[in-house]
Amino acid sequence: MNVLVINAGSSSLKYRLLNVERQEVLAKGICERVGSQEAFHKHGLDDNERVIDAQMADHDEAMALVLESLTHGPTAAVSSLDEIDAIGHRIVQGGKYFDRSVLIDDDVIAKIDELAELAPLHNGAALMGIRACQKHMPGKPMVAVFDTSFFQTLPPKAYMYPLPYELYEKYAIRKYGAHGTSHRYISERAASFLDEPLEDLKLITCHIGNGCSMSAIDHGVAVDTSMGLTPLDGLMMGTRCGAIDPAIVPFVMEHENLTGAEVNDLMNKKSGLLGISGISNDLRSVREASENGDERAMLAYDMYSNSIKKYIGQYIAVMGGVDAIVLTAGVGENCDKMRRMIFSGLQPLGIKIDLEKNKERGGERLISTDDSEVQIMIIPTDEEYMIARDTFDIVHEKIGVEGGVFVD
Ligand code: AMP
């Protein structure tokens, strides 16, 4: 089955066409700065990526360009839209409604719309992606895969905030988490790599890149996660501050004469590695500056690793132990120096990193010493594959597919 995975952002439309049975990526690309004069469409696999279009007024036009590039000319991956069997959409906020991926119908669309209040940029964009697909590929089965659904298993003691209870009742203010598709994927792959049932393991999963989140997964069930009502909470990130003393918010508003929206912007876009280093949100640049003696870059680097270390401690306490710590995303997969800093000093907890293995590159691998009680693993994440697989499973279950033809 060929599944088109769509990840629509407020001004972007990322896509990947996969054959699920063969686990093969047939095509991928991204439309960026949609709706602006600088819009462009990049298409192609790995080193072959190149800009093939410009000018798209909205997501609808972007989708038309994507479908054209998938089916026509030198970029074609399939001969017609008939060869795309289903579409999987990444949706950031599923709120309390969705604890799993679902087939998209009018009711699902209405709920995604209702939840846009909790994720205005993201859910609104996802709806534009869904509507564009409905227009250009009417009747094609579509599945919604939510970033939050993996965390619907959190117990109330983990998802509630100690605020007046009415705020939860009135506005559903609670922890929803994010990056759930990535945490679900790497926890499943980690169990498979260790050749043990997920249900027998206590895992701490770390998605650390520009956005960062960690989860405690106890016997296959997510019991805590670091992102909150929004993806601003938890760890220090590239441009996001993560958890800070909430009293800082009114203080800064008053003293810097900022509105709520402005301070929100400051915490989301001007903080984290960028805010502390004053150099970049990109860890590679911060690392380089710190190695050249820049003190603020060194501080940013130290704070980023310390923030992760503290959550490891928290989640060991939450689960009463841990069997494996799993790292993924740009920093987790690639930065040996950051990994060394995160795990330094954790030997008393039975966590020992092997410094030689840590320097090696590759795919799924162990970087703990042979005598480490806790395994440390790297699992490259693949959210698109997970979305395609959910789409495949749901379309099979709900609709049925025979030889590429859907039957009721
Ligand atoms: P992501 O959000 O998963 O794409 O991750 C982006 C982050 O990963 C950026 O901060 C990059 O600097 C960082 N990153 C990617 N490759 C490396 C590398 N080889 N060494 C250090 N950081 C890296």
Automatic annotation (TrEMBL):
Where, by residue number, does Mg(2+) bind?
N7, E383
Question: EC annotation?
Answer: 2.7.2.1
Q: How is the cofactor bound?
A: Mg(2+). Can also accept Mn(2+).
Q: Which cofactor does it need?
A: Mg(2+); Mn(2+)
The catalytic site is made up of D147
Q: Which GO terms describe its cellular component?
A: cytoplasm
Q: Where in the cell is it found?
A: Cytoplasm
Subunit composition and interactions: Homodimer.
Q: Which family does this protein fall into?
A: Belongs to the acetokinase family.
Full protein name: Acetate kinase
Lineage of source species: Bacteria, Bacillati, Actinomycetota, Coriobacteriia, Eggerthellales
